[in-house]
Write a structure and sequence with these properties.
Blueprint: H1 7-31, H2 36-70, H3 78-111, H4 115-119, H5 131-156, H6 162-184
């Protein structure tokens, strides 16, 4: 006996077949979000590496200070040298924070909320709800990195006259204004 299907039955079978293909494709497509874990993992590894490097740099400064002050040696420009090294360490710490915020943000946006963080009474700085919020937090820390980098370079620059000092003052004014406007929209 030959089976005959009405046109409505053919459409229902096509739709069921299409739904299965569509569901399989969408499931595979949705699963590709787990590739974001590569960026999350390597951001965390990079951040940890920078924290270690910056901490070793600070340790070297502390050892140098003890050696020079308690050892009786007072090399020329020692203060400028240790300040520059400490500023370099702060710069590395800030870049490490950028990597951490980036990693946490990607994880929360693409994978899942971090349950431990939600239960914690700790700061909500790493809590990310949207891509715009992630970009905003990253931008603020990157601007701080740029300010610290400017400060580090300004320390090593030789100033030849009043115009150079005026340019330095103008640059500091513009940085202060940028910092002011960066925080003007904050609620706290």
């Amino acid at each position: 006996m030959k089976e005959t299907h009405t046109e409505a039955e053919h459409l229902a079978m096509d739709k069921a077949h299409q739904s299965w293909i569509e569901a399989a494709f969408e499931s595979a497509l949705w699963s590709t979000r787990f590739f974001v874990l590569l960026a999350v993992i390597f951001s965390m590894i990079g951040g940890i590496a920078l924290f270690i490097v910056a901490s070793v740099d600070v340790w070297h400064v502390v050892v140098s200070v003890f050696h020079n002050y308690f050892g009786g040696a007072h090399p020329a420009n020692f203060h400028e040298k240790i300040v520059a090294e400490l500023i370099g360490a702060v710069d590395l710490y800030l870049i490490a924070i950028v990597l951490f915020i980036f990693g946490f943000g990607l994880y929360e946006l693409f994978i899942s909320k971090i349950d431990v963080a939600e239960r914690s009474a700790a700061s909500k700085i790493l809590e990310i709800h949207s891509l715009d919020e992630l970009k905003d937090k990253l931008a603020k820390v990157i601007i701080m990195v740029l300010i610290v980098g400017f400060f580090k370079r300004a320390m090593h620059t030789t100033y030849g006259g009043a115009l150079d000092m005026l340019m330095l003052a103008g640059a500091i004014l513009f940085l202060a204004l940028a910092f002011y406007f960066m925080h003007k929209g904050d609620s706290h």
